[in-house]
Write a structure and sequence with these properties.
The complex is a heterotrimer of chains A (about 325), B (about 290) and C (about 110). Chain B is mostly helical and about 290 residues long. Chain B has helices at about 1-15, 25-35, 40-45, 50-60, 75-90, 100-125, 130-140, 140-150, 150-165, 170-175, 180-190, 195-205, 215-230, 250, 260-275. Chain B has 2 domains: about 20-95, no CATH class; about 100-275, Hypothetical protein af1432 (Orthogonal Bundle). Chain B contains 15 helices and no strands. In chain C, the strands form 2 sheets. In chain C, strands 1-4 form a two-stranded antiparallel ribbon. In chain C, strands 2-3 form a two-stranded antiparallel sheet. The chains are: A alpha/beta (about 325), B mainly alpha (about 290), C alpha+beta (about 110).
Chain lengths: ~325, ~290, ~110
């Protein structure tokens, strides 16, 4: 399972003087899945952690030279290591007094006696959760680049027939300039909902929606519904976006602004441009190919100032 | 003393969690939502005929959680942005009034009628986005529903005052509570981040001349309320005509005679909205269901 | 024939279908004209829909009914000259409508 959960070998550091705990962890995973470096003393470990941060850090409260909470604190206080998940190993008595989890920013804990299955699953869960939250777009909470790439590559490797749609907003910058980034964020949140709900309304199929960043979104649908999906997304977006403009701009269906040179420039209402790349018959080998094709299509989509989608019509 | 009652009442109003609706409305929407072939348009149409579901949907989509408070005034758009999962969740968690007082049913008919009339007024006055005006008309008496649920004793007292002193509902509210459903509307609209057009129409439909930002919305609802009462379609709690605000017609650039075609349209459309949408197959051979 | 919620039923409407209990026991037969008492009785029995004859122009849509109700609706506004004007206009409007309806019925 660890192999299917993670795209590469994971590295963990276990800080513990307890040989039983070390043996347990080593027994739960093949080292090709998740390899454990066991260190018996806390302080020595800090430099190793800083130099080569593992994917996960498990700290036993039984460490003699330093409290597990302190280790967690040191790690989490550095922004470069904040994303490193930390699991504490405790004895039942350690929990008699409540812990201040605001101060001690651990991600999870295990309690003796350890149930091997539980330990294994909790470690997996903590690793997955860390990837999820790290990768999520801070505004829309949709999965970000890492997840997107990993999903695309996964589908390519399985030779699934799918359509990959890259969306972005035309004239988003001029909207931000006129109305500020806060309202720009509102539009992004709306766009995310429109895409997610429209894609999800195709019941019974596997779909995926990601937010690369800024005004760039990605969605993956089965190839046969790609065109319908684009139609619906565009229709819903076009219907709603005017309401994010003030009345006068809504009326004239655009923004008029004067730039620093005194030039009057006008921008139409924001529009969605979608470039759709198909992977049918296993034609794609690597996600990079997909994004390269999409870039070419995107240029075409942007030639039209209204919302539109361009489908990659090339035969495999 | 009065100030305390208002503060306590406001607290109770805003703490409303469970806003129930009519059984027949909930049945219809639930059936629709469970049908996998249903469209957003179909759901929107049914929800647009119910003030409680419409309010819930608009409240949710305008919540800061979704990221764009105060932007969405269309039921259709709200449903697109909420998605079928969330919609289903809202429907499932909506309860029904267990005491199906005729008065409550009357208020529903009245609100749907007002939505219809307000939309017709907006079209007559050649205003943009008449559906938004309809929504304002639909929600104009939401404060009465919330008061009935959250302040049941006071609500009862208002009803008694209407009957015993032959007052309009708004007058009786002011006598008993010290404030009217228009004030309650303002509280709700603010608390729920409803768009400013809807907020002003809900809060000032009795005094459209006081509207600062969206006088047309307030005036249209004012006239819509007037019209639905002339036809006595449903009940807003009393059986008196609305004393028209002197500026209402002027704000919309309408004359009294312009109302004639609106009245025509209303009478015509009344037949359509009077009926619940039963299809013949759904009725058992003996019509009329007896509740057990 | 029209199916309407009981709340919109008015005295004078005729039943297009009999009303029976869920177990089949008849309550009211087909063709019976509704009265205020009957409507109340049906309401207390939990009946919420009835099938009635004709286009069921309910009282709210019946223009002559509207004319008759104007005095009642405007009863507290007699002292307001604007509202008196409005009422007069509405009286004229509905009277014309009622006459038009009567003429249609006469021809039909």
């Amino acid at each position: 399972m660890a192999n299917s959960l993670f795209s590469r070998q994971q590295h963990g550091i276990l800080l513990s003087p307890d040989p039983e705990l070390a043996a347990l962890f080593r027994s739960l995973w093949a080292s090709s899945e998740l390899e454990w470096l066991v260190i018996g003393q806390g302080r020595r470990a800090m430099e190793i952690i800083f130099n080569e941060p593992p994917d996960i850090l498990v700290v036993d409260n039984r460490l003699e030279d330093i409290k597990s909470a302190e280790v967690a604190g040191i790690v989490k206080s550095e922004n470069v290591y904040r994303q490193l998940p930390v699991i504490l190993c405790l004895d039942a008595g350690d929990l008699d007094q409540p812990w201040n989890w605001n101060e001690i920013e651990a991600d999870d804990f295990l309690v003796r006696p350890f149930l091997p299955t539980q330990a294994r699953e909790r470690v997996h869960l903590t690793l997955c959760r860390a990837t999820r939250s790290m990768d999520a777009n801070p505004l829309t909470k949709l999965p970000g680049n890492t997840s997107i790439i990993s999903r695309i590559q996964d589908l390519i490797d399985r030779k699934d027939d799918f359509a990959l749609a890259y969306c972005d907003l035309d004239y988003f910058k001029s909207f931000n300039d006129r109305y500020g980034f806060s309202r720009g964020d509102e539009v992004l949140m709306m766009t995310a909902r429109v895409i997610v709900n429209t894609i999800r309304s195709f019941t019974g199929i596997r779909t995926f929606v990601g937010h690369v960043g800024g005004d760039d979104f990605v969605f993956i649908v089965p190839a046969d519904i790609a065109e319908t999906a684009c139609q619906r997304v565009v229709e819903a977006f076009d219907g709603i976006v005017p309401h994010f403009y003030d009345e006068d701009d809504r009326e004239r269906e655009g923004i008029v602004s004067t730039d620093r040179q005194g030039e009057v420039r006008s921008f139409p209402l924001m529009a969605l441009s979608i470039a759709v790349v198909f992977n049918t018959g296993g034609r794609l080998k690597h996600y990079g190919e997909a994004s390269a094709i999409a870039m070419g299509l995107k240029k075409k989509a942007k030639e039209n100032s209204k919302s539109c989608y361009v489908l990659d019509r090339r035969a495999p | 003393m009065e100030e305390d009652l208002k503060t306590v009442a406001k607290g109770k109003i805003l703490s409303i969690r469970d806003l129930p609706t009519l059984p027949r409305v909930l049945d219809e929407v639930s059936r629709l939502v469970e049908n996998p072939n249903t469209t957003i348009e179909a759901i929107a149409k049914v929800i647009s005929r119910d003030q409680v579901l419409s309010a819930k949907v608009l409240k949710m989509v305008n919540s800061p959680v979704y990221g764009f408070p105060g932007r969405i005034s269309s039921i259709q758009h709200a449903l697109v942005l909420l998605g079928i999962n969330v919609i289903r969740g809202v429907i499932i968690s909506t309860s029904v009034f267990d005491i199906m007082a005729k008065a409550m049913e009357g208020l529903w008919e009245h609100s749907v009628g007002c939505a219809l009339a307000t939309g017709l007024i907006a079209r007559k006055a050649k205003l943009k986005e008449p559906e938004e005006f309809s929504v304002c008309g639909l929600l104009h008496d939401l404060g009465k529903v919330v008061a009935a649920v959250q302040l049941p004793e006071l609500h009862k007292a208002v009803g008694e005052t209407v009957r015993s002193q032959d007052l309009r509902w708004l007058e009786a509210e002011k006598a008993v509570l010290g404030f009217g459903h228009d004030r309650i509307n303002a509280w709700l609209a603010t608390h729920w981040h409803l768009p400013p057009t809807i907020k002003e129409a809900m809060a000032l439909h009795h005094y459209p001349e006081r509207a600062q930002f969206y006088p047309q919305h307030a005036a249209a609802v004012h006239l819509g309320d007037f019209i639905v009462r002339i036809f006595e379609h449903g009940s807003g709690g009393d059986d008196q005509a609305v004393p028209l605000s002197p500026l209402a017609l002027k704000i919309l650039n309408l004359k009294l005679t312009d109302l004639d075609s609106v009245l025509d349209g209303f009478a015509q459309d009344l037949a359509e909205i009077s009926c619940v949408d039963f299809t013949p197959e759904e009725l058992s051979p003996s019509s009329g269901k007896a509740c057990n | 024939m029209q199916n309407i919620p009981l709340s919109l039923a008015q005295p004078g409407m005729k039943l297009a279908k009999a009303i029976t209990k869920a177990n089949g026991m008849p309550i009211v037969g087909v063709g019976i004209e509704l009265t205020e008492t009957l409507i109340d009785r049906l309401d207390s029995m939990g009946i919420d829909t009835v099938s009635i004859v004709g286009d069921a122009v309910s009282a709210s849509q019946n223009p002559s009914e509207r004319v008759q109700r104007l005095d009642h609706l405007f009863r507290r506004l007699e002292g307001d000259p604007n509202m008196v004007k409005v009422k007069a206009h509405l009286r004229e409007y509905f009277t014309i409508k009622a006459a038009a309806d009567a003429a249609k019925q006469g021809k039909g």
